[in-house]
Task: inverse folding
């Protein structure tokens, strides 16, 4: 079994793009944040270490991104390999920026041209790990080249994020994700949420992706999802059936799909809204073989999910939320710069 906190770069003999991310939402639902820790090592040339803080405000419909980046030298690479896992990991940048991750604490500071941002957050974990991909097949074999684990589906934060005109303090609810691969898929949408109106203990994570096959062609859409409802998991992640789910829409700001397993159906309808009136941001994700992808995201998408028995069509539950995180990548979106931030 692959540990959800193991730094995968130490096991990669080729290029890798790896992130260990934290997401949080304020109690009143107005503000949200993402803290991204990224290790990037290309097939050829220098890699990078990046930390980024993205803050979203529902009321103003704006987002702010702060980041620090440094070359991944052989000495730094050795440092991360020695750390072995993300919950025993810290890094200091030449600019004075830093990050520090432990099981109980998340700290950091970023000095950027937009100002200085810092965060000091105590973590209360439930250790609710989601391994959506089959362990032996997908984590130990080289394909698919994109792996994801939800380190903790239900994570509570308490502390403060402040600086550059931003102040978030108090308690937050969120999650912790671990992703690694040689970049991102050719095209995809992914969503996660633990803040549903009808069931505060519910959790959803799912994705649709088209993957590169030997860099010569792309796969059909591969889709998987898991929904925890009233303490029970409903999984739509059978590998052999991952291309049979009914994808209806996938664009920059929307994802609509019906997931099916032997017993249940799950209709998922997610709308991220107009980026002019909803807080979106974008960033550039480097590919290990060269080039960048443009990732767009909002934590304030609206969603309706309908779970029903497949044979009888009897309704099991309907869930709604205004706080689902939607993330999309379309191949036609070209990076406009080499920086971390991108226009949504």
Result:
């Amino acid at each position: 079994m692959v540990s959800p906190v193991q730094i995968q770069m130490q096991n990669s003999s080729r290029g890798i793009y790896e992130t260990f991310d934290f997401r949080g939402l304020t109690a009143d639902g107005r503000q949200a944040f993402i803290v991204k820790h990224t290790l990037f090592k290309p097939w050829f040339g220098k890699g990078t270490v990046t930390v980024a803080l993205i803050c979203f405000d529902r009321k103003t419909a704006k987002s702010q991104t702060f980041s620090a980046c440094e070359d991944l030298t052989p000495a730094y690479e050795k440092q991360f390999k020695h750390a072995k896992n993300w919950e025993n990991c810290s890094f200091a940048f030449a600019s004075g920026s830093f990050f520090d991750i432990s099981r109980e604490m998340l700290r950091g500071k970023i000095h950027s041209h937009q100002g200085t941002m810092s965060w000091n957050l105590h973590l209360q974990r439930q250790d609710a790990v989601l391994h959506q991909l089959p362990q032996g097949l997908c984590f130990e074999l080289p394909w698919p080249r994109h792996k994801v684990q939800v380190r903790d589906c239900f994570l509570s934060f308490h502390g403060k994020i402040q600086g550059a005109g931003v102040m978030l303090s108090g308690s937050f609810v969120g999650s912790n994700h671990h992703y690694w691969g040689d970049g991102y898929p050719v095209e995809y949408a992914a969503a996660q949420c633990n803040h549903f109106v009808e069931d505060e203990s519910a959790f959803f994570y799912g994705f649709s992706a088209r993957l590169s096959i030997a860099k010569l062609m792309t796969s059909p859409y591969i889709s998987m999802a898991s929904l925890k409802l009233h303490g029970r998991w409903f999984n739509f992640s059978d590998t052999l059936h991952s291309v049979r789910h009914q994808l209806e829409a996938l664009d920059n700001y929307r994802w609509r799909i019906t997931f099916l397993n032997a017993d249940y159906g799950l209709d998922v309808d997610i709308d991220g809204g107009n980026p002019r009136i909803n807080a979106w941001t974008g960033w550039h994700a480097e590919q290990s073989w060269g080039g960048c992808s443009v990732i767009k995201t909002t934590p304030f998408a609206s969603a309706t999910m309908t779970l029903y028995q497949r044979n009888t069509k009897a309704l099991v539950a309907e869930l709604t939320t205004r706080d689902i995180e939607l993330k999309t990548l379309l191949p036609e979106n070209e990076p406009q710069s080499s920086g971390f931030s991108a226009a949504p």
Remarks:
- The chain has a mean pLDDT of 91.
